User: Which sequence fits this backbone?
């Protein structure tokens, strides 16, 4: 049996998350308050200023709750996983669990990542439901507006998130409808994450990472950028590349599903990744 832990990213946050964890892991709660300069408990439980949905705050909050959730599962007797993976921001939790850096260092990285990504404006994202990834690529390649839009997240066989300028996203909608898309859903985000339009913050973050040392993963971590395990000497470069490149979540799941007797556990608030996995498995069973 191959135990595999998955860590969610933005979109899984919810007011009240981590309520049972902050007192239990007071050391990490104190570390988080020190690194962030505000109360992580107040942000997650009360969100008095309506900040939990803002990238700059969402990313640190999810990192902390994901990390504490994984720690609680290990304390409860969960075995050491054979593999780890995280969706976008969640990849930092996978690397933490693999011993690449400590909790405070990981949170410092995530704080800066969220700050840099949160400064990008002027674009958006949309979920394309009902078309396979190759069809999504073909539709985007077929028009001038489409060629301004990137596939940002390949989540399942029939759910891909695209990113780009808002007017281009609006312009490509009729093309997807003509291709038979089941749903075309604009997302409530502030920027075109995981696209060519994030290359400036990607380069800035790459420069920021040069000041940090990273240990080789002690557990295999599957990377968003290619759906394959991290090369042990490429942690810094792979983390930087993640910001401006597609999240290859479907490839990640297919790789992990090929492992001996895979058993998946989601470590974080909600069940977004568990539901995606169920959709992927259903399609494979149907096709087989």
Assistant:
């Amino acid at each position: 049996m191959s135990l595999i832990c998955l860590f969610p990213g933005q979109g899984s946050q919810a007011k009240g998350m981590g309520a049972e964890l902050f007192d239990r892991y007071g050391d990490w709660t104190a570390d988080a308050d020190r690194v962030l300069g505000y109360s992580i408990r107040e942000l997650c439980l009360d969100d008095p200023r309506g900040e939990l949905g803002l990238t700059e705050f969402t990313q640190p909050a999810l990192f902390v709750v994901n990390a504490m959730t994984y720690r609680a599962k290990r304390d409860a007797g969960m075995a050491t996983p054979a593999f780890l993976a995280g969706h976008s921001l969640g990849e930092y939790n996978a690397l933490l669990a693999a011993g690449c850096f400590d909790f405070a260092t990981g949170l410092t990285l995530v704080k800066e990542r969220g700050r840099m990504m949160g400064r990008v404006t002027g674009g958006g994202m949309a979920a394309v439901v009902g078309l396979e990834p190759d069809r999504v690529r073909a539709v985007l390649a077929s028009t001038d507006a489409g060629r301004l839009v990137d596939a940002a997240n390949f989540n399942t066989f029939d759910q891909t998130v695209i990113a780009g300028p808002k007017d281009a996203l609006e312009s490509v909608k009729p093309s997807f409808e003509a291709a038979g898309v089941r749903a075309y859903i604009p997302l409530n985000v502030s920027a075109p994450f995981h696209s060519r339009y994030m290359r400036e913050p990607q380069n800035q973050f790459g420069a920021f990472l040069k000041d940090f040392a990273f240990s080789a993963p002690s557990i295999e971590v599957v990377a968003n950028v290619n759906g394959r395990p991290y090369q042990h000497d490429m942690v810094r470069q792979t983390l930087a590349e993640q910001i401006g490149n597609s999240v290859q979540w479907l490839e990640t799941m297919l790789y992990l599903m090929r492992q001996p007797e895979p058993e998946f556990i989601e470590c974080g608030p909600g069940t977004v990744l568990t539901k995606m996995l169920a959709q992927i498995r259903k399609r494979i069973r149907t096709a087989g």
Remarks:
- The chain is about 45% helix and 15% strand.
- Strands lie at 2-7, 83-86, 123-129, 150-156, 159-165, 183-186, 220-222, 262-266.
